[in-house]
Write a structure and sequence with these properties.
Elements (H helix, E strand, L loop, with lengths): L1 H22 L5 H22 L7 H22 L5 H8 L2 H13 L5 H18 L6 H4 L2 H27 L2 H22 L4 H9 L5 H23 L2 H8 L2 H13 L5 H19 L3
Helix pairs in contact: 1-11, 1-12, 1-13, 2-3, 2-9, 2-11, 3-8, 3-9, 4-8, 5-8, 5-12, 6-12, 6-13, 6-14, 9-11, 13-14
Length: 286
């Protein structure tokens, strides 16, 4: 079940990031994150109660949910708005590498040789699928893009490993419930830091068709996180992370189906490696 939830998360993230990238033409990241917070309240809390949330776990997971809300959520919204998304997105897709390293150090996770083979295959495929088709040398020389992306990948790797440890002691339901609560103050502080007013949000809600990308992107990001934490509850972080990060492969498929685009050779190679890695992890990497 962990692999199924991870793949669901990956598909949801593919849709979310596709829309969120377009939303930054309309809003700063703090406003997009505000919508993410709203959908978290509307989806995570009822879902947690439905699958059996134990209120006694709330105090246990609250601080870890706060760390995750800052490092894995708000910080990533900010990073994706920094510079050329084709660069930051590609480098950020390497976060499973950091998750695996932190999972080994913090959680003591160890993979078999066969597992390593399929995990590496999935990560390499993800990076190939997310490579930009055209990017100028001038953009690559802007090191701040790269530093922001590496910072984001490291932050997610650390946060996910820490969160996995507390989920093992409680449940994904408790973590989602706590995350929904802590994102409220995080979102309000984020809006204040970017000096955004409530009028901007009200304007967006009144003009759904104009600002639909930010809203749809946030919705699917929230759904993806449901799959992510359920995957972490049901399998190793070292396995769940590469699978949830395989969203560039789904983005290639979505581009072919929806936009009738023709993938490049590198994208095809990346997609094939992702598929082989996923199948291998699910069937032979045990």
């Amino acid at each position: 079940m962990g692999i199924f939830f991870a793949l669901f998360a990956s598909l949801a993230f593919a849709i979310a990031y596709t829309f969120l990238k377009r939303s930054y033409k309309e809003f700063p990241p703090s406003v997009a994150f505000f919508f993410d917070m709203l959908f978290g309240l509307l989806i995570w809390i009822p879902f947690s109660l439905m699958i059996g949330f134990d209120f006694s776990d709330l105090s246990k997971v609250l601080i870890y949910a706060l760390i995750s809300g800052i490092l894995s959520e708000a910080f990533i919204f900010y990073i994706l708005s920094k510079g050329e998304i084709s660069i930051t997105g590609t480098i950020f897709a390497s976060y499973p590498v950091y998750t695996i390293l932190f999972a080994m150090l913090i959680l003591g996770e160890r993979l078999s040789l066969l597992h390593w083979l399929f995990v590496i295959m999935t990560i390499v495929g993800t990076l190939l699928a997310s490579l930009p088709r055209k990017i100028s040398r001038q953009e690559w020389r802007k090191k701040t893009y790269i530093l922001w992306a590496i910072a984001g990948a490291t932050a997610v790797g650390l946060s996910d490993s820490i969160s996995k440890g507390i989920i093992d002691q409680s449940s994904a339901a408790a973590f989602l419930f706590a995350l929904a609560l802590v994102q409220v103050p995080i979102s309000l502080i984020y809006l204040r830091l970017e000096k955004e007013k409530a009028s901007t949000i009200i304007k967006a809600l009144k003009k759904w068709r104009v600002y639909k990308y930010a809203i749809i992107g946030s919705l699917f990001n929230v759904l993806g996180l449901v799959g992510l934490w359920l995957a972490f509850e049901n399998t190793l972080a070292s396995i769940a992370s590469p699978l949830t990060a395989a969203y560039p492969g789904f983005m290639v498929i979505l581009a072919v189906v929806w936009l009738k685009e023709k993938p490049s050779k590198l994208e095809w190679l990346g997609l094939i490696l992702i598929m082989l890695g996923v199948v291998g992890i699910g069937r032979w990497g045990k």
